[in-house]
Amino acid sequence: MRATVLLLAALALVPPTACWGAAGHAVVGLVAQTLLPPGAARLVGELLSGSTLGDVAAWADTVKRKGPLAYTFDYHFADAHDDPPRDCNFDDARDCPTGACLVGAIANYTRQAGCTGPRLLPRAQRAQALKFIVHFLGDIAQPLHLFLRGRGGNDQKVVFDGMPMSLHAVWDTGMQRDVRAAGRPEKRIRSDFGGSKDSYAAHLVAQIRAAAWGDASAWISPFGPDDTNARGNSLAAIEWAVEANAIGCWAAWAPYDADPAQDFGAAYYRDAVRVVDHQIARAGVRLADWISRIAAACRPVPHGEL
Ligand SMILES: *[C@@H]1O[C@H](CO)[C@@H](O)[C@H](O)[C@H]1NC(C)=O
């Protein structure tokens, strides 16, 4: 009993998650894995020793709070110092001046995973960099990762299907999969896909292939993995940050301000879940393309050299 109370108290102290929940990240990875061309799939298989992008997608969240990689915490977001929903904009020079944020980290780990630097890094470091890329290309599609307001909605306490959580958590986990035991109704995956991340990912891939959101190749940035600005920030990632910030303005903040006391599992959910689908699909397509462009610059790794 006592132990249970302590455990619950400890759980309550865990800071709010700062990314799609594990399920959202895994679905981004699963979508991308399905779309990888053969050369890119080979690189992923080699670096991840047979694990898939879905398997490793949530890893970065497990190392960001303590231990030797805790310095990566700030790399999961790029906070716009704007005034949503009245005035939304992501300004790279203002919002990520030192490169120590999502758009800088994407450039950094892309360089480490790839083969265009002066020398190839050790395999373990390239593998770790790839795991960061998989995660960060998911985070940059989560609209609330692009706002300083309320620390990305972590300070907005709301109710979702009768359960208290932050606005940030509504977007991270509230909408995707049900894990009620852990207190987070990840509703999209539970109510529409029988609790299966794979089915949700397969649905999104089918939607992408059917051009449900138009031609998905339009989601690909003209900027490549090596294109950065003077701050070292990724030009493609900056485009994605600008886009997600604009989406968060009308999809996350405006309907929040219209009625902060509503139950977010009802009308808010119905509108926002369409945005969640779209953003996860976008992230998966972009991730598959990003990795294939990285792979194109790498020669195949001969056996025994890894
Ligand atoms: C870049 O990677 C290095 C080595 O892993 C790390 O020390 C540094 O903090 C990273 N910086 C960013 C902005 O990702």
Automatic annotation (TrEMBL):
Residues annotated as signal peptide: 1-19
Q: Which CDD domains match?
A: S1-P1_nuclease
Matches recorded under Pfam families: S1-P1_nuclease (PF02265)
The UniProt record lists the keyword Glycoprotein: yes
Record has Glycoprotein as a keyword: yes
Q: Which UniProt keywords apply?
A: Disulfide bond, Endonuclease, Glycoprotein, Hydrolase, Metal-binding, Nuclease, Signal
Gene3D superfamilies, A to Z: P1 Nuclease (1.10.575.10)
Q: Which family does it belong to?
A: Belongs to the nuclease type I family.
What's the name of the protein?
Answer: S1/P1 nuclease
Originating organism: Polyrhizophydium stewartii
